[in-house]
Every structure is written in C-alpha cells, then in structure tokens.
Please model this.
Amino acid sequence: MEHPYRELPNQGPYEARLGHALITMVEPHPGEERMYNRWYEDDHFIAGAMAMPWMFAGRRWVATRELQLMRYPQDSALAQPVTKGCYISIYWVTQGRMRDHLEWTTATNRRLIRDQRLANHLHRIEQVYTSFQDHAGTVYRDGQGPRDIHALNYPYQGLVVEAVDAPDAAARAELEQWLLRDHLAVAVRNSPAAICIVFRPQPFPEGALSFVRKNDPSREGRRLTVLWFLEADPRSCWTDYFLREGEAVARAGHGRVELMAPFIPTLHGTDMYVDQLR
Model:
C-alpha cells in the first residue's frame, strides 16, 4: 500500500490559486506582549499554520499605538474599544482545499494542546477577529505586478484591514458586487494600494476549537473583509486615501464600515514594535 503522503497529493485541486484565507487579529494581554510575540513567531506561526498542507503563504502585521489611534469607527461592532487587536496574521490557502486544511489544522491544534504548546499560551491573548474566509475577488491598481497569490511575500509597507457589514445576509452579495465592480477599482487608482482583496468570513464549524468560536466572525452572513496592500506606510497616506472610506461606503447605501485599521509588517524573529503597543 502506498504511503498516504504519496496518495494525497494525487487527489483534488492543486492550482497556484488563492481560494481562502485565515485572518486572525488578536490582542495580547498587558504584560504578555513579548512572551506572546516570541511564542507565536518561534512556534505557532510555523507548527500551527505554515507547516500544514495547502497553506502556501503567511505574514504577520502589527499596529503600534499610533496606528491603533487612527482606526475608526469608534462605535465599531467588531472591536471595543476599536483600538483592540494590535497583531494580525494572514495566511493563504489553495482554492478548493479549505475542508482538507480544516481537518488537518483541527487535528494539529488538538495535538498542540495535548503537548502543552497551545493552551498554556492562549491566556496571553484575546481573539478579536479570527476566521477562515473565502476569496470573493481581487482588484488590481496596475496591469502588471505582483498578483494576489504573491501579496504575503511581496514586501508591502502597509496593510489596511476593512470590515464592512451589509444590512442583512441577503444584501451581502450586492455589497460584494459594488465593492469589486465599482468602488475599489476607483479607490485604488493613483493610490498607494496596489492590491485590494475581498473575502467572505465564514462561521467556524462546530468541530473548531472553542477559543475561536466565541463570536460569529461572519456577522450572521453580513460581513465582508477587504485587505488593502500598500506600497507606502499607512501613516503617510491615511488622511488622503482612507479617512473617508467609511463615508464613501455609507453614501453608496450598501453597508457600514465597522473597522478601518492600518498595520505595518512585523520583522520576523525580532521583538520590534513590542515596546510601541501601549
């Protein structure tokens, strides 16, 4: 009988194509920032994510206190206070492989808990916005350049995370089409945002670990996530390009922005920015 690792690659899709994402925004508890940062990068980023099948790219981003204070709206339905969630990790999963990846990641995390490599670190953080999400579409500023599959490997200088809620689940498709066909194509023109990627958050399945299932990230099927990948530090372009994004969405009448949050990339293997979070 063939070894399973020889059999499994011969089954199912394996295109180099973005199909899904894991987006996880967390808030370390005060005093636990450095311990959390080292555990996450030295262990969990690898063993709990990148070493798993069909997860082909990953990157971490950080919001210093200065960046946190740029966020809006203050009455966000996603985070209270809106400054909560100073680290975000984003991972790409191959199209059509979400179920396979979920099966593996659930089993791996149970093993990590059993081996005391996960549960004893979870007390250091609060999950703010963590979910697997399905790729809805990508908007490019330029005809040539990095594609969405490269976005977590290309050295972008900034990231803006936008969460938009439609009035109800039935209206999310209309919001999605407006974003992809009309709004984002205009918004990225002559802007520092080279790529905008839209995702549909999915509720965690019943088999998922309880620490990530306490809130429905999909907002009962109403929410979309937009990731803006910037070729500039968000502090240099926030006022001109992002400060009025919430107003633009509201004027169009398709939904409400529940989070506009700028980040900059971490420097893996270091504790850079840990002392700038509070």
